[in-house]
Amino acid sequence: MSGYNFAFLDEHTKRMIRRAILKAVAIPGYQVPFGSREMPLSYGWGTGGVQVTASVIGPDDVLKVIDQGADDTTNAVSIRQFFRRTTGVRTTTRADEATIIQTRHRVPETPLVEGQILVLQVPIPEPLRWLEPRETETRTMHALEEYGVMHVRLYEDITRHGHVETSYDYPVRVNGRYLMRPSPIPKFDNPKLDRNPALLLFGAGREKRIYAVPPYTPVRSLDFDDYPFTIERWEHACALCGARDAFLDEIVVDDKGGRMFVCSDTDHCERRRSGA
Amino acid sequence: MYVAVKGGERAIEAAHAQLAEERRGDRAVAELTLAQIEQQLGLAVDRVMTEGSLYDRELAALAIKQARGDLVEAIFLLRAYRTTMPRLGASLPVETTRMTVRRRVSATFKDVPGGQILGPTFDYTHRLLDFSLAEPEDQREPRRGSGPPERVDGGPGDSRASMPRVVDVLDREGLIEAERPDAASRSVGDITREPLVFPAERDVRLQNLARGDEGFVLALGYATQRGYGRNHPFAAEIRIGEVELELAPEELGFPITIGELTVTECQMVNQFTGSATAPPQFTRGYGLAFGHAERKAMAMALVDRALRARELGEAAVTPPQDDEFVLSHSDNVEAAGFVQHLKLPHHVDFQSELVLLRTLRAEAGVAPATTTP
């Protein structure tokens, strides 16, 4: 695109973001503040993820963009178009063909491999935010590894409801050290973060933070010995591909309470149907 | 049979085409020119420049036209353009005592050196709709007071001569806290390049308030007057006019003027009863905005003073005194984005919540209302 640098950001900004990413990789799960820029997309639409992708993408990369697991949701389409316009790189819907996958709210069902980068868009990076609104406080709590309040919260959920009342953005400990928000992925996807061969990068544009889970890093969802972490289960299989082990979206098909359940990961579903 | 929704790409294109159509409106009506916006909607241009943090009247007018008059959207357009610009250097501090003053009022003294200059203000207009403006100028009855205004007050005249600040009068008596410049070695913060960290220093706070949403800053300033962080303000001075912008390139070794800005400056003085370390004296709150923006500059000065609570040994217990609360929520580009991102699909998270809620209800013994699917 004329008048703009490759991938929109100028090279100085990319260098600044790459430095933040390197620091994030060096301290898994630690939130690195960075000089987030105003992007031509609205805050909340994935400006953090877009800045991370723009800083790591090169002309030989193949990009996949998903939102809610799907390649064809409007925001995924819009971000894919943005990178097609500003970089000219090849885009794909296949998770196994992509070198970079930018995502909002899902980790693909297809297992990732070494060399791939998954970029997650993050609205609120601070896992302790709902327990303590002040940044000055939460920074100290992370420094002192003072995570008792989170365990108390989970404990109170269990005593009141018999379950932890968090179904997405479920808190994790990274490499036995930092408490981290995995971004609003369903807890169904949490186990995929653990020792993943791909590099996982998290970008929060409005909150100006970057964090990372390097390949093969242990990521543990918080739980108790007698109340182990569990993921969502459905009584149904995907109505399109028959998958029983995928995250399902619920589609309202009529006004009489009719429902159908289909895979949220459209690429996974299509490839299962085509037998690929 | 359900078919996965496709065609997002075509829908987006069609939406953009429709937006362009609506922006233009009825083609029987002449299209707005940037010059018209810049000249006749000048205060909208001023607000967009201030909160867009970019002094360029023509670009601000373009942004307003493109945003169909939605000023927050126009501010966003200007910011997204500004962020791509290189940073060539930092100007010298603007010297507002050398302002070519168009308007200058002080509420603390009946008369002040340099005089009170009313200038172009809505303050004493009666807010009666002027139906004559509904007609083009050339078809209007000539009115009393039309034509270029006479200078009633001989005061401002020679502009470049120094116009002392009202607060300096108090300063000479030692009644107001001394303004101590930062050490020359301390670099000034830049909120457009560095993330906010707390507690924030005053340079960063003032930058944040200057580009902060006018409505938000106004509401907080108002709250300080109603008792939430009350600080007994007096408007020592509000001045509006043109100031020179100077740059001192290293290779030259002396400052050169690179342009002129119109700014509104507000200096508030606030009562202060003293603390263990400071005698009773007046304290200061400061506001500055591009163009003619008194409401913004005054509100900013009130909030600036409220945010100095910690430094002055006051208990910071109300929202306007809390730098994390104020600075994290003042930016309307950030706020508008995050509030409106709720429009984006969240069906994956929502599905997770549904699964959990159904489990909890089943365990509580509530039978599902329907048996489908």
Overall description:
The complex is a heterodimer of chains A (276) and B (373). Chain A is of the alpha/beta class. Chain A contains seven helices and twelve strands. Chain A has helices spanning 11-26, 47-56, 74-87, 135-143, 148-161, 190-193, 266-273; strands at residues 32-33, 62-67, 90-91, 100-104, 117-121, 172-174, 178-180, 199-204, 209-213, 219-221, 248-252, 259-263. In chain A, helix 1 (11-26) crosses helix 2. The longest helix of chain A has 16 residues, at 11-26. Chain A is globular, with a radius of gyration of 19 Å. The mean pLDDT of chain A is 95. In chain B, 35% of the residues lie in helices and 12% in strands. With 373 residues, chain B is α+β, with helices and mostly antiparallel strands. Residues 1-5 and 154-159 of chain B have low confidence and may be disordered. Chain B has helices spanning 8-24, 34-40, 42-52, 57-66, 71-82, 166-172, 202-211, 214-225, 294-306, 323-329, 332-340, 347-363; strands at residues 100-105, 233-247, 256-270, 283-290. In chain B, a hairpin with an 8-residue loop joins strand 2 (233-247) and strand 3. Chain B contains twelve helices and four strands; from the N terminus they run αααααβαααβββαααα. In chain B, helix 2 (34-40) packs across helix 4, helix 3 (42-52) crosses helix 4 (57-66) and helix 3 crosses helix 5. Chain B starts with 7 loop residues before the first helix and ends in a 10-residue tail after the last helix. Chains A and B meet through helix 3, strand 11 and strand 12 of A and helix 1, helix 5, helix 11 and helix 12 of B.
